[in-house]
Amino acid sequence: MEGGNQTEGSEFLLLGMSESPEQQRILFWMFLCMYLVTVVGNVLIILAISSDSRLHTPMYFFLANLSFTDLFFVTNTIPKMLVNLQSQNKAITYTGCLTQLYFLVSLVALDNLILAVMAYDRYVAICHPLHYVTAMSPGLCILLLSLGWEFSVLYGLIHTLLMTRVIFCGSRKIHYLFCEMYVLLRLACSNIHINHTVLVATGCFIFLIPLGFMITSGARIVRAIPRIPSATRKYKAFSTCASHLAVVSLFYGTLGMVYLQPLQTYSMKDSVATVMYAVVTPIMNPFIYSLRNKDMHGALGRLLQGKAFWKLT
Predict the structure, then answer these.
(1) Which residues are CB-neighbours of 157 under 8 A, at least 6 positions away?
(2) Helices 281-291 and 58-86: crossing angle, nearest 10°?
């Protein structure tokens, strides 16, 4: 009990990837630029989709929610990182660390589930186009998104509550940019067998099952694309699926580099992979989904022209 009280009243020191002032300045401006680009890119996608009635379809409904999740995701970690890089005080409270961990875990899970739902949407649109309107009704879209939120909230709560049982009685110096699951477990001096077992079990359910579904859907879509009679529709289907595949590959590739390894082998060199899925993936999503998408090009053009018009008047 005394150890638990000591843990709850303690602070962690987020020392970052480097203690060199010169490197910290470089990291500050790099992460600030990345954060601003991520915010602007995802906000533009949300505004373009919400303001253009032609984009009020299931695919863009889920894309807007993915952008919202990514926006929330980077805001959970980067502002604190920027403060730490500019400040001599690197401390984060125990409560603040667990709060950051909760949103990090929950939003990673939500990102994953939204990508799975988007894969299902593309599967129905390409492989069963005649049933698309009924199969992807507004009610079903809202239900799928609600289930995604519920599962991700529950997933985050489970791991955060389990983390409150862990005692940190040694060094609380984290050579990392934010409070991350494996980093905290490596600092623990109590038994973390339950934490690690639940992490693996729930991770298989909430990540590997959707990944298997996305791979299966992608394979069926690839087989169906050559049978599409219209060259325009064939190109549009291929372009949309290629964009989704790029996002899924980036997300799972960087996530796998961090978590598909034993806890004992995890080291600070894996911070680069964590930054990739926590910072780089959200910044890439707007570009990947908009660069090859003519509908998004048109909606963004109309949005920016409308803002320019109101500014002139």
Answers:
(1) 102, 106
(2) 140
Select from 58, 77, 212, 33 the least CA-distant residue to 124: 58
Q: Does the predicted model carry a pTM greater than 0.70?
A: yes
Residue 175: which of 185, 183, 167 has the closest Cα?
Answer: 183
Query: Shortest CA distance to 42 belongs to which of 296, 294, 283, 204?
Result: 283
**DSSP state, 66?**
H
DSSP H stretches of helix in the chain:
2-8, 21-51, 58-86, 94-127, 132-135, 138-163, 181-187, 193-203, 209-224, 231-259, 271-275, 281-291, 294-312
CA dist., res. 17 & res. 3, Å (int): 29
Q: What is the pLDDT of residues 175-188, one digit of tens each?
A: 777 888 888 888 88
Contacts of 169 (CB under 8 A, 6+ apart): 3, 6, 7, 189, 190
Give the list of residues 6+ apart from residue 268 with CB closer than 8 angstroms, or none.
17, 175, 176
Q: Are the CB atoms for 77 and 278 separated by under 8 Å?
A: yes
Q: Extract the tokens encoding 264.
A: 């004992």
**Cα–Cα distance between 247 and 231 in angstroms, integer?**
24
CA 237 – CA 124 distance, rounded (Å):
12
**pLDDT tens digits, 220-231:** 888 888 887 877
What is the rounded CA–CA span in Å between residue 164 and residue 51?
43
Q: Residue 304: phi, psi to the nearest 5?
A: -70, -35
